[in-house]
Design goal:
By secondary structure, this protein is of the alpha/beta class. Helices cover about 40% and strands about 25% of the residues. The strands form six sheets. The chain has a five-stranded mixed β-sheet with strand order 3-6-7-9-11, with helices on both faces. Strands 12-13-14-16-18 form a five-stranded mixed β-sheet. A hairpin with a 2-residue loop joins strand 13 and strand 14. It is elongated, with a radius of gyration of 23 Å. The two termini are about 40 Å apart.
Length: about 375
């Protein structure tokens, strides 16, 4: 009733925005970059917890999982039932491993208060559950460390958990995503080095592969274009629908191309459901672009890029849609098309990255790799 906060949800991101600009002016694009990196970090934390046996191996849920657990009255970035001796009540009632993760930011004694309060309220309100609370962040100052540890919290930095190289890689990825279009179009070597720096985070390969392919697509899309944009959110004000444009290729003031990117593991396949999901996004993107002053007279086209292949049903759906569309042309590129495009740039680092992480993975010939 105070009108201080407003909540948004678009299917992948959920966040709170302050209505009063004197308190804060949020930058949702920067938030999205951090959310992507948080997901990679959470994958790594989940694998770390699994290896130590801190919670049941297959029941550790992280932010974004459909089965994400709520413990007591609170949601957490990571939860998992724990049967280790200090946590369980009797022989069958588990405690819970709970954690929040922040890939960016140094916590002080004020910013850490929310976590302490959340853990204390949970412990006080649910008497029959023990919790193991961990706060993971880029860093903590001295006052925050003292306050948190005195309250019984476990405070960990990315460097403590994964080492200096990974910690630096996390910050480098954040910076790259915040400046993705500029960096991806001018410094392709940086894109490739990111994956090498972060390869030690087990469990994060799928998310890293998706981000890497989007950045590579930015680089490939710049050829012959006036400019390229990355991870833009499209809003249809009439319906309230929000969708993401992975890459927006602005050929010139009279033509722009919205590109959907699907980075697949070696042997990965795009199914008809994924194609249908993309087609459903097109009307929202079309309305959004049409309402921008610089594109009012422009022609729009839509492309689907993947490093994998398409199922027969998916190709049939694409062909049918292409034949039915006159004003909004669609097209697609599979892995062979992407590799051909990359070879045309004469950029060896990009070709090598595609081969190593999307086409010639060493495990591709020995195990079945599932779609991501």
């Amino acid at each position: 009733e105070s009108g201080v906060i407003e909540k948004f949800k678009d299917g992948t991101l959920e966040y709170i925005s302050l209505i009063r600009p004197e308190l804060s002016i949020p930058n949702f694009e920067l938030y999205k970059a951090r959310a992507l990196v948080d997901k990679i970090l959470l994958d790594g934390v989940r694998e770390w917890a699994r290896k130590l046996g801190l919670a049941s191996y297959n029941k550790i849920a992280i932010r974004g999982d459909p089965e994400r657990l709520q413990v007591g009255a609170f949601k957490w970035d990571l939860t998992g039932p724990s049967y280790i001796m200090p946590m369980r009540k009797g022989n069958s009632n588990p405690g819970f491993l709970v954690a929040d993760v922040f890939s960016e930011g140094i916590f002080d004694k004020y910013s850490i208060q929310y976590f302490i309060r959340k853990a204390q309220l949970l412990s006080a309100s649910v008497k029959n559950i023990s919790i193991f609370p961990i706060l993971i962040a880029e860093g903590f100052n001295g006052e925050a460390l003292t306050l948190g540890r005195n309250a019984g919290m476990i405070l960990a930095t990315t460097e403590n958990m994964f080492g200096v190289k990974v910690s630096m890689g996390i910050q480098s990825l954040l910076y790259t995503l915040k400046n993705a279009a500029a960096i991806a179009t001018t410094n392709p070597d940086r894109i490739v080095s990111l994956l090498n720096d972060l390869s030690q985070i087990e469990g994060a390969a799928g998310n890293l592969r998706g981000i890497l392919f989007e950045l590579i697509s930015v680089y490939l899309a710049k050829d012959g274009a006036a400019s390229v944009d990355f991870a833009r959110q499209a809003l249809d004000k009439n319906t309230g629908k929000k969708v993401d444009i992975d890459v927006l290729r602005i050929v010139n003031k009279s033509h722009c191309v919205a590109i959907e990117c699907k980075g697949k593991a070696p042997g990965g396949i795009v199914n008809v459901e994924e194609v249908e999901g993309w087609i459903k996004k097109i009307p929202t993107i079309h309305v959004y672009l049409s309402n921008l002053d610089q594109f009012r007279e422009a022609k729009f086209s839509f492309e689907f890029w993947t490093t994998g292949t398409f199922t027969t049903d998916a190709l049939g759906k694409l062909e049918k849609e292409k034949a039915a569309r006159v004003k909004t042309a669609i097209s697609w590129k599979d892995g062979e098309d992407i590799l051909k495009l990359a070879r045309g740039t004469k950029e060896k680092a990009i070709v090598n990255a595609l081969n190593e992480h999307f086409f010639k993975h060493p495990l591709a010939s020995t195990i079945e790799i599932k779609d991501e």
